[in-house]
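stage 2 :: seqdesign
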């Protein structure tokens, strides 16, 4: 992951880093900030989805996505390991998400 961040920086880009913790705790603010950085419109439908998988999940989905496939939206009860191990802030997107749920 660090190699990818460095590769983006080498070509003059600013990597977009999103903390899973921010996404779970502040989904709307995080997605609004991400959309702003990407230059696309935020849509509240991004916050909910139908239960189950999609073909794009790939063949490893049955091993990795149990919780996601059972969910219909962001649920704070499903915390990441980052709750146990503090991580550095994820840059501008994380900062903007922390400002509140626009």
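stage 2 :: out
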């Amino acid at each position: 992951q660090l190699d990818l961040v460095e590769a983006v920086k080498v070509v003059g880009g600013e990597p977009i880093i999103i903390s899973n913790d921010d996404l779970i705790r502040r989904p709307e603010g995080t997605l609004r900030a991400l959309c702003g950085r990407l230059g696309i419109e935020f849509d509240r439908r991004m916050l909910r989805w139908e239960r189950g998988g999609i073909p794009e999940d790939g063949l490893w989905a049955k091993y990795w996505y149990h919780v996601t496939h059972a969910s219909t939206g962001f649920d704070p009860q499903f915390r990441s390991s980052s709750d146990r191990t503090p991580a550095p802030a994820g840059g501008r997107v994380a900062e903007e998400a922390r400002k509140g749920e626009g």
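stage 3 :: structure notes
- Confidence is low (pLDDT under 50) at residues 82-90.
- The CA atoms of residues 17 and 75 lie 20 Å apart.
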